[in-house]
Specification:
By secondary structure, this protein is an all-alpha fold. It has helices at residues 3-22, 27-31, 41-60, 65-68, 90-95, 101-119, 141-168; strands at residues 130-132, 139-140.
Amino acid sequence: MTSASLLTDAFERVRETVYDAVMGLTAEQLAFRPYPAGNSIAWLVWHLTRIQDDHIAGVAETGQVWESGGWAPRFGLPAGSMDTGYGNTSEQVATITVESVEVLTAYYDAVHERTIRYVSTLTDHDLPRIVDKSWDPPVTLAVRLVSVINDDLQHAGQSAYLRGMIQYG
């Protein structure tokens, strides 16, 4: 197994988990918050996708999918907003809404496709490259990608848990 195939497999597993959590839900179900300060499925999937978009664009040295797709207004944010959800207040979480699961998955799919295109080109030689010198020790490409996968799976799992609450009370 190559580094590229391992990373592709990991991001495909994230996609499966995201889809299992959201498919067939209504806009109201996607907006459900288990308590007033809790996160909704819409927010969790939007946030994991925003972080993936931001971090993959950073390591690939490209623009974000978010910037080129007019996505902000489709999620209840002002045009041009680059919010990723990191550190959002309860009020900010409440602003993230979608009219349908298709909007949520369209953005996710665009980011996922770009991610797979990028990671499928990587070799073992690429992974030690320093991508963020603001940490001690500096962050390598390998560490950044594992961090994104970890964050994605945690939030996708939280979404699946919320789906269970919605479906089974």
